[in-house]
Backbone:
């Protein structure tokens, strides 16, 4: 076990379970290893914490919690980076932004593809996509209608 000091305090983690981003994240290409922070609250959001730069952390969510039709599958080169085959499990996750206005947005245009089998992740930029970098969450009534 190792320890790092983070914005959440001192955190102990097992390096063998670290989430590896072989190419980093957009704008953070030198950061390759993250830990998933234990979720202290129920809900669809969770944090990933950089091991290399402990002051950097991101909030992620499964976008299908809010946009049921959102489905992104990795291409062959993306599967190679993730170290997975076509039939292996892969999840699309979104970075969450909470601006001062408190109008939460999801980055649906550059999802994070996560492969549980290899514990690898990559951020993918969707070209010619209808999705936006700052997609507002649907209103609660709209989410309820979509769930029916």
Residues:
């Amino acid at each position: 076990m190792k320890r790092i000091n983070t914005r959440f305090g001192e955190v102990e983690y097992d390096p063998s379970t670290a989430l590896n981003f072989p190419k980093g994240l957009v704008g953070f290409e030198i950061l390759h290893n993250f830990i998933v922070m234990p979720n202290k609250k129920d809900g669809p959001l969770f944090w990933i914490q950089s091991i290399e730069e402990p002051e950097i952390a991101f909030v992620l969510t499964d976008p299908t919690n809010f946009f049921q039709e959102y489905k992104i599958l990795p291409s062959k080169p993306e599967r190679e980076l993730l170290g997975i085959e076509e039939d292996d499990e892969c999840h699309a996750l979104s970075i969450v932004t909470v601006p001062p206005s408190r109008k939460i947005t999801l980055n649906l245009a550059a999802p994070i593809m996560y492969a549980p089998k290899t514990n690898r992740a990559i951020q993918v930029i969707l070209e010619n996509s209808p999705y936006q970098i700052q997609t507002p969450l649907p209103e609660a009534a709209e989410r309820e209608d979509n769930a029916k």
